[in-house]
Amino acid sequence: xxxxxxxxxxxxxxxxxxxxxxxxxxxxxxxxxxxxxxxxxxxxxxxxxxxxxxxxxxxxxxxxxxxxxxxxxxxxxxxxxxxxxxxxxxxxxxx
Amino acid sequence: xxxxxxxxxxxxxxxxxxxxxxxxxxxxxxxxxxxxxxxxxxxxxxxxxxxxxxxxxxxxxxxxxxxxxxxxxxxxxxxxxxxxxxxxxxxxxxxxxxxxxxxxxxxxxxxxxxxxxxxxxxxxxxxxxxxxxxxxxxxxxxxxxxxxxxxxxxxxxxxxxxxxxxxxxxxxxxxxxxxxxxxxxxxxxxxxxxxxxxxxxxxxxxxxxxxxxxxxxxxxxxxxxxxxxxxxxxxxxxxxxxxxxxxxxxxxxxxxxxxxxxxxxxxxxxxxxxxxxxxxxxxxxxxxxxxxxxxxxxxxxxxxxxxxxxxxxxxxxxxxxxxxxxxxxxxxxxxxxxxxxxxxxxxxxxxxxxxxxxxxxxxxxxxxxxxxxxxxxxxxxxxxxxxxxxxxxxxxxxxxxxxxxxxxxxxxxxxxxxxxxxxxxxxxxxxxxxxxxxxxxxxxxxxxxxxxxxxxxxxxxxxxxxxxxxxxxxx
Lengths: 95, 475
Hints:
Helix content of chain A: 40-55%
Radius of gyration of chain B: 29 Å
Number of domains of chain B: 3
Number of strands of chain B: 18
Oligomer: heterodimer
CATH class of the domain at 5-42 in chain A: Mainly Alpha
Low-confidence stretches of chain B: none
Low-confidence stretches of chain A: none
CATH topology of the domain at 5-42 in chain A: Histone, subunit A
Radius of gyration of chain A: 22 Å
Shape of chain B: elongated
Structural class of chain B: alpha+beta
Largest sheet of chain B: 10 strands, mixed
Number of helices of chain A: 3
Number of helices of chain B: 15
Shape of chain A: flat
Helix content of chain B: 25-40%
Order of helices and strands of chain A: HHEHEE
């Protein structure tokens, strides 16, 4: 499997990354290198092996349902670029 | 051509926990913007999620209540998309291995009963809210809701009409509120439905192309949106157009659906297991404990109401529409009311009054015990049914007991045969024309005479007794 320039541009768009026309070829080469490694892994017969979602064999830790978090809005909003009436302001988004 | 509509639902139920699914911030509704957020919810770098045990337990409760398989191991995944009310750039959800799989619920439309199978139910976090009012050309973001636990419940595409879809949504709403995993408040967004609709020629095996109606927050809108969408799709096809897969929004103002995004713009979510969250492992002992603590479920209670109290299927279903309604009925019976009478009063007068006042049973000013006293006065013939309705109205308004109102207003039924007879004699003397009509064979005149007697007694006579004496006198 090999990524085309169009694939690279699409992946970049999905990740909201700006990749210039000059960079597309180089990024594509790097990504294809990674995919090449994965292809080697895929050559191994994994019939009957349960897919692994996590590398470490641990179970999820659970916490009790108690609301203990203090209101830290002032501290959080002190480092936000723009706030008003307690809201974070962002460039207008209407889908 | 005969068309058939195919409908499947995805319902986001907000789990009623105190804290968020991955942080200890409060989930209370209606707080000042951004006052209920932790570092995880606003996605500060390095902040790590810690799973809320109660959210998992509620998912198990749901799965057990509808006979699903509870996966002993399930996986959290990142669903990647960019929107400012999702500061991490991904939503933590479940993809390949959800916590709950399968199960079914029973719906009723008219006299028809149908089982709707569920595909799955998975845990995920809610996003924040965007406020698009004009903040100098910018949007405002409130992250209080970000991280609120959701259980997304996905049905198989097994519904074949808007009525079935609404019945399914209502049945699901009843179950989640019954077992107490969700407050069911649709105005506050605790129960939101996405509806997948497609049409196909009746008899065709393959599904048509579907369009998804997003975010319906009332049963009425679900019905309106499906009806409109179905008609629209049929017209498109009959005009020779092809249905394109799309996401649409329903506009309650116009009653129409309109396209939000086409398949070309569909998100590519690039799901992958979240490395921050190892597999969720649920032990047998946990499942067993939850099972032993589950309340009696609506279907089991309906069967019991039919066998224990001799109620009809219809009444047993009506009375188990909500847990508090069923409890109100049982408390009324426990306080001495006849079960069938209690059922009639609750599904009749009480329900009608609550409906008129747009209230739920928990807000009724007449307690189960107070209603039972009223019903007992009908049972022992102290008052007749019609008077009882007036007494209930007064109980509702004043909060007084039935006995107090009957005593105060002198409503006690006149059962002294001599007194009733005197009233009847008076009516007969004043209404010779009606008597003649009756004697000439007009049966209707008899009912008119009964009416006159009841009126003359100010409603205090026992109608059965009036009937009896009147028949004797005219006979």
